[in-house]
Amino acid sequence: MLIRPAEPGDAAGVASVHARAGRAAWSSFLGDVLAEPDVPLWQERVTAPGFLVAERDGVVVGFGRADVTTGEVALLYVDPAGQGRGTGRALLGAVVDLLRRAGWQRARLRTEERNTGPRCFYERAGWCPTGEVLEREWAGRRLREVWYAADLTE
User: Fold this and answer.
1) Residue extents of the structural domains in the chain
2) Do residues 83 and 90 lie in contact, with contact meaning Cβ atoms separated by under 8 Å?
3) Cross-referenced InterPro entries, in alphabetical order (predicted)?
4) CATH number, domain 2-151, options 3.20.20.70, 3.40.630.30, 3.60.20.30, 3.65.10.10
5) Is 0.85 surpassed by the pTM of this model?
C-alpha cells in the first residue's frame, strides 16, 4: 500500500470510495444518500492541501485530509472491501503526521454519533470523545456529530 498526496486524476477513485464507504457506514440511519459517486464534487477537493490517498496496486482504496489551519482530521474514508487491512490506521497516522508537522499538539475530528464502526476505530487508536457535539443538516438529514481529540505530543 502507498499513501501519497492526492492528484486531480484521483477524483474518480476518491468519489467511488466515498460513495461505497458512506453507504456502508450511514445507510442504516441516513438511507441511500450516496447512491452514485460524485466525481465533479471531488475534482477540486482532491487538490486541497493535506489531502492524501491510499492506493493498492494503483487503485485508490482510501483517503484522508488534514486541515492544518484548524488542527482537524477533516476526512478519513476507506473502501469497505479493504477495511481490516491497516489502511485506515496508516491513513490516520499520515494525516496526524501532517498536523504534527504543522505544529499542532492536539488534533480533533468528528463523526456521526450513530456511526459506531468508525467511533470504535478512533477510540482503539487512542482518540477520546470531548463531550462536544455538532448538530447540523446534510443532504436533508439531521446529523449529530461527536467530537474526538488526541494528544499529538506523545
Assistant:
1) 2-151
2) no
3) Acyl_CoA_acyltransferase, Bact_Acetyltransf, GNAT_dom
4) 3.40.630.30
5) yes
